Amino acid sequence: MTEAELQQTIIDAAELSGWLAFHDGDSRRSTGAGFPDLVLVKPPRVVLLELKSEIGRIRPEQHVWMDALSRCDTVASAIVRPEHLDTILDYLRNPETRKKT
Question: What is the set of domains in the chain, with CATH numbers?
Answer without folding.
Answer: 3-23+33-97 (3.40.1350.10)
